[in-house]
From TrEMBL:
The keyword Cytoplasm belongs to this UniProt entry's keyword annotation: no
Lineage: Bacteria, Bacillati, Actinomycetota, Actinomycetes, Streptosporangiales
Protein's cellular compartments: Cell membrane
Species of origin: Nocardiopsis suaedae
InterPro entries documented for this protein: Acyl_transf_3_dom (IPR002656)
Extent of Basic and acidic residues compositional bias: 1-14
UniProt region (Disordered), positions on chain: 1-31
Tree of life domain: Bacteria
Domain Acyltransferase: residue ranges: 37-362
One function term, GO molecular function aspect: acyltransferase activity
The entry's keywords: Acyltransferase, Cell membrane, Membrane, Transferase, Transmembrane, Transmembrane helix
Record's bilayer topology term: Multi-pass membrane protein
Protein family: Belongs to the acyltransferase 3 family.
The protein, known as: Acyltransferase family protein
Length: 380
């Protein structure tokens, strides 16, 4: 899900991003590889954000709340403030994988198949079978969902990463040979095309994505992760990150909420504002990357016991986070099937947060059990 190897932190295994080449660094010559000490914290934060978004989504889309109510606006604002989660995963992937390596394409593909290909196949089958049992999904419907690259509400991400893996050896060449200014132009153009593609999908009869092409709109984020990873650190990037995160999140909440109010329901316009390639989410995602990177680096360099505790906790939680991503939807939907939303009105916001906590804890337990089964570890 988050790439190089989400099961081991890069600082404790191979270093995914090698030193900049003279061309890739804008002609500045080789320089040390940036620290990856912040990656665990970013992964855990993004994983928690994914679970929270899925926990709050029934409130945002008005399944459990009335439009315009305090709980609806609160849930919408919280959701908007967490939309950076999936783009952050993609950017982490690009940060760790696009640095130059002495690795042949066949070797790269062989290793990545084990890391993403096996889980993609296993969980696609598992979620479709579960959906057929749970909702009566037909076989033809299951085939259609698999062909679209969305056999589960979250599994599209596996198809995105798988597609990006296919082109990673070629994008490495681009990252190593092009100047930083050229890469910024490429990234800006790719993100603009992705945003335009999603916007055109608002027109009736236009759009549609297949499993094969699902990764294409995210190429910009992938290269952007490498650029930001090799960018400056310190107070100035932190301030920029906070500004982008706050303004992007606020714009997303106000924009989506206003469009929903105008339409009288949560519709395509609000969905677009919350899309991972909308301008508001792109800004917030860049901000989240910069903020979490700086926070992680400061924690790693601090000698305070609280910082050390947070770093150790993040390192521990990052290892099973891929598995949590994969299983948490089954856990969440099962809880909802059994108990519904155990509150209405303002308390529904608290109930959704409680669900998220329980889901994360239960998912961690499930993943740990799976990891102890012989030959099953490869799927989480």
């Amino acid at each position: 899900m988050y790439v190089d190897d989400i099961r081991t932190a890069p600082d404790r295994g191979e270093t995914a991003a090698g030193p900049d080449t003279a061309a890739g660094a804008g002609g500045a010559g080789p320089r040390p590889t940036p620290s990856t000490a912040w990656i665990d914290l970013a992964r855990v934060a993004a994983m928690a954000a994914v679970v929270l978004i899925h926990a709050y989504s029934p409130l945002v889309t008005e399944v459990y709340t009335g439009q315009g109510s305090t709980s609806w606006w609160t849930s919408t604002a919280l959701d908007a403030a967490l939309r950076w989660c999936v783009p952050l995963f993609v950017m982490i992937s690009g940060a760790l994988l696009l640095g130059p390596r002495d690795e042949a394409a066949p070797d790269f593909y062989r290793k990545r198949w084990a890391r993403i290909g096996v889980p993609l196949v296993v969980w696609t089958v598992a979620y479709l079978a579960w959906d057929m049992w749970r909702t009566g999904l037909t076989l033809s419907g299951a085939v259609e969902q698999a062909a679209s690259g969305e056999p589960g509400i979250h599994l599209y991400f596996l198809y995105v990463i798988a597609g990006l893996y296919v082109f990673t050896p070629f994008l490495r060449t681009l990252a190593g040979a092009a100047s930083r200014s050229a890469l910024w132009w490429f990234t800006g153009a790719a993100l603009a095309f992705g945003a335009a593609d999603q916007a055109l999908g608002l027109i009736d009869g236009v759009g549609g994505t297949t499993a094969v092409a699902r990764f294409l709109p995210y190429v910009g984020y992938y290269v952007l992760g490498w650029l930001l990873f090799h960018g400056p650190t310190g107070t100035r990037p932190l301030r920029l990150g906070l500004t982008l995160l706050v303004t992007g999140s606020a714009a997303g909440a106000v924009g989506a909420g206003a469009l929903a109010e105008l339409a009288g329901e949560w519709g395509a316009g609000a969905d677009y504002v919350f899309d991972f390639l909308s301008p508001a989410v792109i800004a917030a995602s860049i901000g989240a990357f910069l903020v979490l990177r700086e926070a992680g680096l400061r924690l790693a360099s601090s000698d305070r016991w609280a910082a050390a505790l947070v770093s150790r906790t993040a390192r521990w939680a990052a290892a099973p986070s891929f598995g949590v991503y994969l299983v948490h939807v089954m856990v969440l939907f099962t809880l909802r099937d059994l108990f519904g939303m155990p509150a209405e009105g303002p308390w529904s916001v608290v109930a959704a947060a409680g669900y998220a906590v329980v889901v994360i804890a239960a998912s961690l337990a499930v993943v740990e059990m799976i990891r102890r089964i012989p030959f099953a570890r490869a799927v989480v």
